[in-house]
Specification:
This protein has helices at 7-18, 35-48, 109-128, 150-155, 204-223, 268-285, 309-322, 337-342, 366-384; strands spanning 51-58, 61-68, 77-82, 99-100, 103-105, 137-142, 163-166, 174-178, 180-189, 235-243, 253-262, 290-299, 302-303, 328-331, 346-349, 354-355, 363-365. The protein is built from 9 helices and 17 strands. With 385 residues, it is an alpha+beta fold. The strands form 4 sheets. A 6-stranded mixed β-sheet has the order 1-2-6-3-7-15. It has a 4-stranded antiparallel β-sheet with strand order 4-5-17-16. It has a 4-stranded antiparallel β-sheet with strand order 10-11-9-12, with helices on one face. It is elongated and about 85 Å long. The chain folds into 2 domains: 7-178 and 301-384, Aminopeptidase; 180-299, Alpha-Beta Plaits, CATH 3.30.70.360. The protein starts with 6 loop residues before the first helix and ends with a helix. α1 packs antiparallel against α3 and α7 crosses α9.
Length: 385
Amino acid sequence: MTLSINEKFIIETTQQLVRVDSTNPTLGAKNAGEGQIAAVIADLATGIGLEVTVQDVLPGRPNVVACLKGTGHGRSLMFNGHTDTVGIHGMVEPFSAGIRQGKLYGRGSQDMKASLAAMLGAAKAIVDAGISLSGDLILAFVIDEETMSEGSADLVQHFSADAAIVTEPTDLTITRAHRGFTWFEVETFGRAAHGSRFKEGIDANMHMGRFLAQLDKLEQELRARPPHPLVGPPSLHASMIKGGSEISTYAAHCLLTIERRTVPGETVASTKAELQAIIDHLAAEDENFKSTVNATFSREPFEVSQEAAIVRTLEQKVTDRLGQRPRHTGQSFWTDAALLAAAGMETVLIGPLGAGLHSAEEWVDVQSVIDLAAILADTAVEYCG
């Protein structure tokens, strides 16, 4: 049976979602959060005929999970997208959802409310065609991806599928890998003393300077390593530094935060060992050098084989829709795909064309959203059976 994509529904749904302020409240005290957009999505999914669950992850910040139940004899598939956006600083009309020359503008238009509309549009096409899938199709609309990914972390405790498609913006390429990250805190310890008493004071800030000099060498070495074929080399940067108490006192303590971007195959332990090696080297040179390193938060990198069943199915449906085989890509940023893959779901990413993610002017290409909905629907019918 031929699937018909309701283009009007997809465009109007994208506009409706963009017009809802769902800025992540962790990023700003006045940000609206995901409560209102969750209610809109739940109504839309119910109207399509899906079985809807609304589940608070954080107070007033719910995930919405909509399910098209299968007959129980096929593979299950999850579409995953986040409902939160970053803030609107510098934007002129952040919630206009206006369309000009085939581009739909507004905060979250590409990242990633158009994808949410495409997910709903794909499910609607299957329902409208009267197709009974063998396996379940699960649409997960999750909170908080822009900060700590509390939404998908909670989702995998309650829902699962054989495979998942995360609809982050990929310009309709098939993304099979992305980098991860770990946040580290490095502390150096000195001895407070009056600024005139150099024989008594030990300067924790100066010691951190020695560490930073070696860290700079490590950063250059990381980027010179043979790159991962899809995501390139690993990297790091020194994010923030704080030390000392007043100008005429030797600093007793200095704190440095580091973000280490990881590639598939790297672990928290292996990256921490690189930093510990710097500390050990500096301590061997100077018995007064005291320092510690600790990982405070981490998200794993992600990679899926090009031979995975969901990747092969998706590639064929993209080819059928666009008339040419899609590129396989990697992304430098982190996504919820890593959490779904770690929970045992064969996971891949695809999303629409656009530009301006997190910037003052964000837009999504309307035709690519319609194409995405068709690709998702065809993939679900093929994969779920």
